[in-house]
Design brief:
single chain; 232 residues; alpha/beta; Rossmann fold; OB fold (Dihydrolipoamide Acetyltransferase, E2P); 2 domains; five-stranded antiparallel sheet; 7 helices; 15 strands
Length: 232
């Protein structure tokens, strides 16, 4: 899970970061936290962010303006506003903010907000697929792997497959908590990996999915962590 914290006060950035670390260490979720002291820098580095903690009162560009730009650029994940003024709350709803936390940040409220996001991110079991004949609701547990076909993708399920007009990058963002991109052209459901053999992931149905050299070590670590986590 990738988190961004954006506030023009250095001390606030560090306080919220430490609070988040304390909360997240109680779970087995892997996380990464990036800090930004202004909205302009945040807007340059949006890729794969799951949660954005966003201060409202900042110089150059305020938090509401940043949030509006985020939504216009297609960011559809979680924005949590940080402010010392309760009167901004109504405006926060207009940009579909997930939460509105008052400074000084209450530990219990922060924990509640983070746990709610975790619940929504990691308990997701179905996705909606747009295809040439309409829509299909797919069960993630039955999705084995996805293969890039240029600007399109092939979605391989346990009993069927679909062609999606979405590129692989779209599915990487949608499924990153369940799948791993072993290669520039493949995204694999970790629960279907039977073993790693040379530069291939061998799936339970004996399909061989290539693993790129630069991703090999990280994929092995990810698989070990996945096995340990699901053996509990």
């Amino acid at each position: 899970m990738r988190i961004a914290i954006c506030d023009d006060e250095e001390i606030i950035l560090e306080i919220i970061k430490e609070k988040c670390i304390t909360i997240l260490n109680e779970s087995s979720i892997e996380y990464d936290i990036a800090l930004f002291n202004n909205g302009i820098e945040l807007l340059k580095k949006l890729e794969n962010l799951d949660i954005i903690f966003l201060d409202i009162n900042m110089p150059e560009i305020d938090g509401f303006s940043v949030a509006e730009l985020l939504r216009k650029e297609g960011y559809d994940k979680y924005i949590i506003f940080l402010t010392s003024k309760i009167e901004y709350m109504q405006r926060a709803f207009k940009v579909k903010a997930f939460r509105y936390l008052l400074k000084p940040i209450d530990d219990n409220q922060l924990k509640e907000a983070l746990n709610e996001v975790i619940k929504e991110l990691f308990c997701k079991t179905k996705i909606i697929l747009e295809h040439k004949n309409g829509q299909a609701i797919l069960d993630i547990k039955e999705l084995i792997y996805i293969e890039s076909l240029g600007d399109n993708t092939a979605i391989y399920m346990t009993n069927e497959y679909y062609i999606s007009n979405k590129p692989l990058k779209y599915w990487v963002n949608q499924l990153k908590n369940f799948f791993y991109q072993t290669h520039k052209s493949y995204l694999v459901n970790l629960s279907y990996v039977k073993r790693i053999e040379d530069n291939f992931a061998i799936l339970k149905n004996n399909i061989k999915i290539p693993i790129s050299y630069r991703k090999s070590n990280n994929f092995k670590v990810t698989m070990k962590n996945y096995i340990v986590k699901n053996a509990k």
